[in-house]
Amino acid sequence: MRGITKRFPGVVANDHVDLDLRKGEVHALLGENGAGKSTLMNILYGLYRPDEGEILLNGKKVVFSSAKAAIDRGIGMVHQHFMLIPVMTVAENIVLEIEPTKAGVLLDYGKAVERVREISTQYGLAVDPTAKVESISVGQQQRVEILKALYRNAEVLILDEPTAVLTPQEAGELFAIIKSLQEGGTSVIFISHKLNEVLEIADRITVLRRGKTIDTVPREGATEDGLAKLMVGREVLLRVDKKPADAGDVLLEVSDLHVKDERGLPAVRDVSFVVRAGEIVGIAGVEGNGQSELIEAITGLRHPESGHVAVAGVEVHHPSARRMLDAGVGHIPEDRQRRGLVLEFSIAENIALHDYNAAPASRFGWLFPRRLIQRARDLIKEFDIRGGGPTTPGGSLSGGNQQKVVAAREIARDPKVLVAAQPTRGLDVGAIEYLHRRLVEERDEGRAILLISLELDEVLSLSDRILVMYEGQIVGEHEPGVTEEEIGLEMLGARRKEPVA
Amino acid sequence: MSTYVGTVQRAGSRLVEPTSLGSIGVTIGVIAFVLAIPPIAARSPLWPILLGIVAILFGIVSASRGAYRVGFGAIASGVLGAALAVLATRSSTAHLNQVFTASLIASMLVFATPLTFGALGGMFSERSGVVNIGLEGMMLMGAFWGIWGADKTGSWVWGVLIAMASGGALALVHAFFAIHLRADQIVGGVAVNFLALGITGYFFVQLYHGNNIPTGVSQIPDVKLTSQSSHGFFADSFGHLNLMIWIAILFVPLSYIVLFKTPIGLRIRACGEHPRAADTVGINVYAIRYGAVILSGILAAMGGAYLTVGYLNTYNENVTAGRGFIALAAMIFGNWRPFGAFGAALLFGFSTALAYRLPVYSANGAVLFQALPYVLTLIAVAGVIGRTVPPAADGKPYKKQ
Amino acid sequence: MSEPLAPQHGSEPDEIKQAPPSTVASRLAIKQRAGGIIVPVLTALLAFLIGGLLVLATGHNPIQAYWDIIKGAGLNWVAHPTNTDVANTAAYNFSQTLLQTAPLILTGLAVAFAFRCGMFNIGGNGQYLVGLYVANWIGISFVNLAKPTHILLAVAGAALAGAIWAGIAGFLKATTGAHEVITTIMLNWIAYWIGNYIFQQGGPLQGAANKPLNIPISGDVAQSAKLPVFWGDADLQGLHIGFFVAIGALVVFWLILNRTTLGYEVRAVGYNPDAAAYGGIRVRTNYIRAMAISGAFAGLAGGLDMLGYLYHFGTTDVQAASIGFLGIAVALLGRNTALGVGLAAFLFGGLLYGTTHGLQSGTIDPSLAGHLTEMIQGLVVLFVGADVLILAVWNSRRKLKRKQPTPTRAAEPEAASS
Fold first, then answer.
1. Which residues 11-50 in chain A show a CB within 8 A of chain B?
2. Is the pLDDT reported for residue A124 higher than 70?
3. Nearest CB partner across the interface for C272, out of A34, A259, A343
4. What whole-number distance in Å separates Cα of residue C4 and Cα of residue A292?
5. C-alpha separations of C31 from C27, C35, C40, C390, C416 in Å
6. Minimum-distance CB partner of C190 among B205, B374, B382
7. 8 Å CB contact of A8 and C416
8. Rounded Cα distance, A144 and C279, in Å
9. Is the pLDDT of residue C338 over 70?
């Protein structure tokens, strides 16, 4: 790929990016969120058309006008969000678009199953071809995605942040698969922002920053520090400055909590823990192990099956979002666009989301818009929210400023307990630093802070105590000094302990 | 993918499955009603009521074990079966014999045919991810342009072909706005219905000056399986049905095969479930959706053409009178599946047939039978739609990257 | 039992789930900011243009036809606004246009209010009809009441009937997640067949005098239930005070949405039910309440029509009723705002009357023009649904003028890149 440039309205996602891939190598594409990795790969896979630049395959110039064109030339991609159809079987997903037929027009499902079984044994990727995708694990779904590419005779396999949804141990299995593919002559492009993984698996590493190629380096001689510097362009501060916690009274007490998920399956099983004033308790775990349901139960958004939640020593009966708010629980939700903000509402209206029905915002059901605006004006100043005034719609702010609006609203209510779920997901470094600092400040103010994050780094650097969640249970409790590996094992459920009382 | 037929087959092998219990309940509920009508015509309300209760029990058990859909179906079937049966036992046998004749089956098929075409059409569209509440309009287009074509060309074949073209053309408008412009598909469907009403009304006045279509327009022929003079159950029910009725019945398994047993069906369903996934393996989502929506218009228009060219042999303004919406209801009631939709179409056709036949014998409440399809669908979506799922991407515009 | 607080519509693939919330109302809001007043005006013009082309293609003079329709709607009356004598054709036609505008405002508001809560109420016609039935029944029945009481009772009954009819859809959505589009369509047809039943020969509301004559029409409402007429003659379909009720409803609609906590909740739920639930708002309650309020507007329309000028109703009227459907076009063209609905209702009111009863034209047959209205209505709805198209046309025109592309706001850089 030479001189690839892709512009989106307002951003240059790729700015004259060069990348070369050799046969049978694992080439890592390293960069922060928003560095343009996925865009580059979507161009290679024919999903985007580059504005400038060209793609050469085996020395010949090619133009991929669609994914189909790229597939036909032996390029396969495993997307970060799997492109699988949950209600269909593994075999149906794999053969889609190149289905074996019988009698000319009919789908030969038997043959499809058989051929999927063949290639899955050939490459050592065990899956049941007749199982429905929705019923298999995330790790297995990823295998289905890889099989999908191999079934199409992929010679170049693009893996977009493949380990994001995996436990360290599952990631290990994936690496073994990649190694064996490599031996078979397949070239792999491995997209990641995790330094250790890249160093473990890649032969060469290309670093992207703000849409530009910074450098391509061989693995030999590369170090985490060196790569990190290339990635962000300056020294990274991986640790958050903070004093040791001065924990006080128990402000949040969760006991024997059982919660079911959307499908009616147990998601949180017998969870008990406490969070004290002036401490940050972090919950680590792989996505989908009950964290979301736990948060929703604590904040009243989901009715627990059984168990109790007490705030500052007072049990909240029949919890609802309203009761939890009134009891003094603040909540920075994991998805600010889906839940944290009404994007069409102005900043002022968004800030009033919890208090619109109480004085001074309203009286006897009558709303006073000017008061909302005044209050927003104060908070915009206090939280340094940029990009608009009180009447600016929330949706037109940048991600970091949207998150500041959410944080401002929650913190300004002076909550006893603050639940922060993935508070820095998808934000730039500046915003991450601000929010981390703010959380520590609020801790020092004497609030009890419950932090849930999929980024193990974040949990490790912010928390005063760390709980590990696996399959809906708390399987471990640690002091901040614990190693990633130790927690990683528990995240996989390798050392299941009795639930912490 | 578990299919309707698959469910039925499984029911045979695993009788204690909640879904099987529910199916049994539905059947018992139907039997409760059948007992009370000719040829059995039980006079005592006891048996139907007992069977109704049994059906309800089956329904409760199966619903409580998680099979809500069939379970509620069985409960509804039990209640309705028993209620209708009790009503039937209170009418005189003579009346019953007149109402429940073999020709009622023929009549049911007549009313079910446009619904079947429409429901199958809607199913293709929605399985590809485009909600189509414009079925009514597409059917109306077929009804008007079909009879116009048959009148002008003197051939019903051309009439039906022109009807299909007109329905397809209106569907193309819907497809363009829904797919390319990513407009709200429900708004688009509403618009298409208005448009069809306006276009057919306008041209009916323009071309026929609002008078009736001349008589003697070429009509779709009946298929005579028995001689005109012979009578008996088979002759009266299936003996001389219109060709389009048989085509509709044929289209049901055909649609099933296309949708579930061919590559193209797999792709249509992929577009309706997860268009991005389909796109990334190289399926042209837009092309599939265009094809499916246009096909839905063509099928709905065939239903309309049957109505005018096959059945009424004339046209009056807004002749479809909501049949497109009943077809929509049948599709939903049938859970976006061909056999389910056909079953619902038969049920709704039956209730319409009853509504037409009963007034001759009883008081004026019969007209309310016309509302039965809507009431049943209302009950069904309340109990069903919230729990079973339409195609995941149904109604969601897809934006190519 | 543990369950999500907002109705779920089954499992969706991850990608769809993670996309920013996209309710009808939220999409509309984005477009609204983008298009402003231009889009609705262009939409209407384009619809009239295409309608005109059809008129031309079928051998009539479209300019003359539209001019006749304008006169038919009495819009030429504005040239002599002092002459309020309904003996004057223009003044009479204009009063009739306003008579049609009133129910259109209300059925338009019915659609708009549900829209603002993120729901598409296609059931305006059914709610309008049940309002009519109830007003007819009360208007005929309680003949001993004093005039204001009788009117109030009948109007309240009509609004309540509409509220209940729509509330069923809201209730089903809140409790079972049944899609309101499907349920309101079904409720429309149920109301339709109920109408066919109650007014038919031997039906419970068939007029006593009509029974022996075998006419399927109800009796007339009592004098005490008829709304006072303030312009024209009650016997000649004068303009009744219901017009002011409709204007008042516009104000109430605006106040509720923008100045009450109820309206705040409605808008929050409409834009993003997940965020609303998170904010402590009871989403389900709001669905039911918003649908009920929405239905009350439509039921009110039916009640005012019955007591204001129809006085009786029959099965053929039931079959022909389309005021509730027109409300969809009114709300969409009016962008679900109070002012917009008012203006759009006036436009369609004029079109409705101007193409039918008011039309005295050698150019175009009134029965033809009536269908032209339906087509224009369809085109308006079609184009409103796709204002991407209208905007594209408008922007390309602007681009040509400026000879340079207009810079657009950064569209979610996060989503666009990694």
1. 42, 45, 47-48
2. yes
3. A343
4. 12
5. 6, 6, 11, 11, 20
6. B374
7. yes
8. 39
9. yes
From the list B173, B194, B381, which residue is nearest C183 (CB)?
B381
* Distance (Å) of CA A497 to CA A475, A491, A501: 5, 12, 11
Q: Of the given ranges (A358-367, A452-461, B245-254, C36-45), which has the lowest mean pLDDT?
A: C36-45
B368 close contact with C: CB closer than 8 A:
yes
**Does A135 contact B at CB distance below 8 Å?**
no
Reported confidence tier of residue C395, pLDDT bands at 50, 70, 90: low
Neighbours of chain B (3+ CB pairs under 8 A): A, C
Range C298-316 average pLDDT: 95
Whether C24 shows a pLDDT value over 70: the answer reads no
Determine the residue among B280, B387, B398 to mutate to test chain A binding: the one whose Cβ has the most chain A Cβ atoms within 10 Å.
B280
Q: Whole-model pTM?
A: 0.84
Residue A318: exposed, middle, or buried by beta-carbon count in 10 A (0-12, 13-18, 19+)?
exposed
Q: How do residues B362-396 score in pLDDT, each as one tens digit?
A: 456 678 878 888 888 887 777 654 444 678 888 88
- Asked if pLDDT for residue C34 goes beyond 60, the answer is no
Question: Phi and psi of B244, rounded to 5°?
Answer: -65, -30
A38, A193, A344, A425: which to substitute to probe chain C, counting the most C Cβ within 10 Å?
A344
Nearest alpha-carbon partner for B315 in B241, B204, B207, B222: B204
* Nearest of B114, B129, B165, B179 to residue B328 by alpha carbon: B114
Mean pLDDT of all residues in A147-162: 91
For residue B325, the chain C residues in CB contact (below 8 A) are: 185, 189
Q: Is-contact C74 C93, C-beta < 8 A?
A: yes
Q: Name the average pLDDT for chain C.
A: 83
Nearest CA in chain C to B372: C190
How many whole angstroms separate alpha carbon A309 and alpha carbon A289?
20
Distance CA C306, CA C300 (A): 10
Task: Tell me whether residues B198 and C181 touch, CB distance under 8 A.
Answer: no
**Burial level of A294, CB count in 10 A (0-12/13-18/19+)?**
buried
The confidence score (pLDDT) of residue A421 equals 93
Q: Chain C partners of A424 at a C-beta cutoff of 8 Å? A: none
- DSSP labels for C181-243? HHHHHHHHHHHHHHHHHHSSTT-TTB-TTTTTTT--BBPPPPGGGSPPEEES-GGGTPEETHH
Collect all residues with Cβ–Cβ distance below 8 Å to A131 and sequence separation of at least 6: A89, A90
**Quick check: A92 and B1 CB within 8 A?**
yes
Confidence of residue C417 (pLDDT cuts 50, 70, 90): very low
Average pLDDT, chain B: 84
Mean pLDDT, residues B35-42 taken together:
70
Question: Cα separation of C127 and C289, whole Å?
Answer: 15
Q: Is the pLDDT of residue B100 over 70?
A: no
Q: Is C366 on the interface with B (CB under 8 A)?
A: no
- Segment A403-435, tens digit of pLDDT: 999 999 999 999 999 999 999 887 777 788 888
Q: What is the pLDDT of residue A493?
A: 64
Q: Identify any residues that bridge with A330 across adjacent strands, giving them in sequence order.
A: A418
AA letter at A253 = E
- Per the structure block, which two tokens stand in for A470? 């696996």
The pair of structure tokens assigned to A115 is: 């051929």
C48: three-class secondary structure by DSSP: helix
pLDDT band at B94 (very low <50, low <70, confident <90, very high): low
CA distance C110 to B137: 24
CA distances from A90 to A33, A129, A136 (A): 31, 5, 9
Contact yes or no for C1 and A82 at CB 8 A = no
In this predicted model, what pLDDT tens digit does every residue of B101-114 receive, in sequence order? 677 888 899 999 99
